[in-house]
Amino acid sequence: MTAITVAVRKRPLSRMEREKGGNDVVDTDHAGLVLHEPKVRYDLTKYTENHAFRFDRAFHEADNNATVYRDVCRPLLDIFFAGGNATCFAYGQTGSGKTHTMIGKGDEKGVYLLAVEDVFRDKSRAGRTVSVAFYEIYGRKVFDLLNGRNRCMVREDGDKNINICGLTEQPAGSIDEVLRMIDEGSAVRSQGVTGANADSSRSHAVLRIELFDPNRGRKQGQLSFIDLAGNERGSDTRNCDRQTRMEGAEINKSLLALKECIRALGMGKSHIPFRGSILTEVLRTSFTGKSRTAMIANISPASTNCEHTLNTLRYTDRVKELRPAEKKGQPMGPGAARGKQPQAGRRAPAAAAPEAGAAYNPNNYNARDGGRGGAAGGGGGGGGGFPARQQKMSDDVMQLVRRLKQQLPQADVESDNEDDDDEEREVERCYTHVANELEKAQDDLLVLYRGMLDKRVGVMLKETDAIKALDRGGVRDLDDFVKNIDACLFDNIQAINEMRDRLAMLKEQLRQEELLGQSFRPTFRI
Description:
By secondary structure, the chain is α+β, with helices and mostly antiparallel strands. 42% of the residues lie in helices and 20% in strands. Strands 1, 5, 6, 9, 10, 11, 12, 13, 16, 17 and 18 form an 11-stranded mixed sheet that branches.
């Protein structure tokens, strides 16, 4: 088993997808996968673009959680029992089956429970104890799911180690105890409603299992399962509220940072960009030293989700793109040539209607789907149809973008110069910047307001003492009273003005977020 194993799991079509006219457009074999993307030319002729990928393992919709665990997760326990760090990620669009893979449903056990059963069954852990921590990363904050979702602080010590201060680590003596902890944590995990899923996970959930040797007094191994929040397109979040928009921006940012860290590790780079997000910071120890990582990408096979599925596959493909010979856009292995795209300026051949009993032809969209879908039919293909036309941004938006670009990090500005013609891309970069600043401003505002309240308590005590002194002394102490009260009022006015200035800045940031968030369709860029 290599240091990084990448697998893809195709789930069955859901009832809702069938009702919407979705068709299965994904074919899998043991390690290969082909996505048949229905598309439509300008002249409304339909064609299929085939995208072939090759991974360490590709699972069919008939494969259950036990099969996924046996082929991908069970080998991780070898490094775990040997004293190393083993990590397994579940990734994919919201509603693709990540949580089902990790936790399971009904009588089907998830990889969480299957791994715990093996941990307690393995005789090599004799004399060692097991502890469990379960937390979520929501935005830029960490919450303990086993302690009433209390917030934990992420701190770096003098040895450059990242510590989650306040995180509960509960000892576990049996499988039932771990199962109870998983149920307890899952019940309080952050969820929300988006255009893609009415029960969408809005946070990254991390289940961490550790082995301890009481005789040596130190950790012997760490096993982490990460149920990543689902990445989404702008069409799923555009009409949502500010919280959902900012959640989506932070989720996509952390997923891209995770991809860069995994790729840098696999390519043996000297610098690993762990500081790209809170997610990669807290998982730093999972990737360093003696470690092994697996990623399970979950996809929907429906033609109505082609754009989502293709984004997931491309992301996963980039994670696996480890060797220098594997350049972007080249096939991952023998027999994985990507579908040939129609050349610019040439019409794609019109697809003839299928004859009765016609054999399946992946290059004939009508033969596969019976003529349904595509832009002309009003249904189906995820990325198909006419190229998206960028809406003309208002003068207010572009004026704000020009002002904000001066505040962006230099690396972002240089990258942005490559896409000067793409107004939406400029707005998206500025929106990400504003969303990050708004998140920081929220924390700073709470710290400032708490400090102001503490000062006001001290000022009120001084005012009380001045009033008591005037009552006791009468007119002769009036001068001191006036001076003391004047000083107290000055302190109050100063604190109030400082708070009003900070609130004015926050109102402006909220206005910027609203203006930018309603002006573009944020996309998950690979």
